Amino acid sequence: MTLMTSDTAAPTTRWEPGRRFLLRAAGLPVESVRGLRCAGTRRWADQVLDGEERLTEGGAALSDLLHGLVEAADATGGDARRALLTLRRQVYNNR
Fold first, then answer.
1. pTM over 0.70
2. Is residue 35 part of a domain?
C-alpha cells in the first residue's frame, strides 16, 4: 500500500478510446445508418458461432470417450496413453 503525502505525487492516469468505438452524433436519426447494415455479414457470423458451438459440444462428447480409452491404455503402457492424452487435449482445445 502506498501512502499519499504532500511529498508524494499522485499517479498519473491516461484515458484513450479503444481501437474500435462508436459515436452517435445527436440530431441524426438512427434510421440514417440503416443503409450501413451488412445482413450477409451478420448471417455469416451467426453461422460461424453456431458451428463453433456444435464443435464444442461434439468435442466434449469425444473427450469423454477418449477419457475411457486413456484409462484402458494405462494398463498397456507405452506410447498409446501419451498419444491418446495428446489427442484428447487437442479435441478439448478445438484444434
1. no
2. no
- Residue 70 belongs to what domain range? 60-95
Q: Are 94 and 55 in contact (CB under 8 A)?
A: yes
DSSP per position, 14-81? -----SS-----TTS-GGGGGGG--HHHHHHHHHHHHHHHHHHHHHHHHHHHHHHHHHHHHHH-THHH
Q: Which tens digit of pLDDT belongs to each residue from 44-69?
A: 999 999 999 998 888 888 888 888 88
**Domain contains 92:** yes
What is the tally of structural domains in the chain? 1
Is the confidence at residue 11, as pLDDT, over 80? no
